[in-house]
Structures are given as C-alpha cells and as structure tokens.
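The pair is quoted verbatim as follows:
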Amino acid sequence: MSTHINAPEGAIAEGVLLPGDPLRAKYIAENFLENPVCYNEVRGMYGFTGTYKGKKVSVQGSGMGMPSLSIYVNELYQFYNVKKIIRVGTIGAIQDDIKVRDTIIANAAFSDSSLINQRFGNFHYAPVPDFGMLYTAFNKSKELGIDAKVGPVVSSDLFYDKNETWRMWKEWGAIGIEMESAELFTLASQYKRKALSIFTASNHIVTGEESTAEERQLTFNNMIKLALETIIED
C-alpha cells in the first residue's frame, strides 16, 4: 500500500487508464471492464481493476492538475510496478480545425508549470509520450473509425487564465489546453515507463462552444475505447 492508494500487492494491473475525475474512473470500470473490483477509495479517488478482452486493466482517478496527478503517478510507478499509463480526459480546443467532441492524441506537452522548472531550472525539458504507444493509438484510431487528431497540447497550471495565453499557444501550433500531461510524460521518463494522453475536446476556447457536465462525465466513449485498445496491445 502507498499513502494515497490503498491497494494490496497485485491488485493493480501493469496497464492503467488515468482519468482525472474519479467518477469517470467508476464509469469506465462499470461500462467497459469485465468483473471490475474496487481497490481504492482513499479521498474518494476510485481505483478499479478488471479485464478488457481477457486482459487485466486498471483505471485510477488522479484529480485535477499536475500536483495531484504527480502523487498518483509516482505511487503507481514506484510502488505498484505499473508499466504504462494512458491519461484519458478532457481538453479545451484552440485550433479552428478541432471541433468539440473530437478525439485528440498528444504527441508532446508544452507547459507553464513550475514543476518543470523546479526539476530542470534554466534547462528546457520537452515532455513527450512513448512513441510506441502513440503509434499504436494512431493505428487503432483508424481501425475503429475514429478521426483522431494528433498534435502538441499545453499542460497549464491555470484553469481560469485572464491573460488569454491560449492565443500565444495557438500561434505556435498547440491544438488544445489541459492540465496534466506534461507531468505524466516527465514522470514516465524518470521511471523509464510508458505514458500517453488521449482526450476528448470538451469545449472550444476560441468559439466558446461547450459540452455539458453530464457529457464530460459519461459520454466520451471513443476516447475510452481507443485507450483500452491501445493499453492491451502495446
């Protein structure tokens, strides 16, 4: 057991889906996994293990933002021998060719986070996902008929950004803004494990279009299917 995950040895699979919202973790377990068992309820951050197409898979909530995700990813990699993590979550689109409810796969994560600076100081670290998992996810999206968009995302510490820094990120090619992937990719590199992020565009920051809270929690199934197909293949 670790500080924030109350799971006995062997309870967590080598492949983990990591939604921020613990209720999305519950939804994934109940609707996509066979025979799911809850291994964690500490702080209401649900974790479940079941099987998908006969292969053991876990899903663990991680909270909002990089500090919260960092706690769970450190513990999963360090104490539970997890080999690969796919973040599944929402993202705000900022490019004109990205629509609300589109599926997005991150091939890099820009960031404004002080977590990066605390580790590397004046050096410029580039957080990127595992290429093998990225390649698998892209090919799986074609097999599933999902028009997944691939590009760099921004992992920001700010949810309410009065300075509208998305305008700068849009100019430099980012396709969406979220709050976690840079830390996930950095920790995967540190622990020599694998990580990837797959998103659903829950809103469009430029146009103001938004999905509902219920849609965000319950209906982004393309992202979930793609992540599960990737985690069992890679």
Observations:
- Residues 158 and 165 are 10 Å apart (CA to CA).
- The chain is about 35% helix and 25% strand.
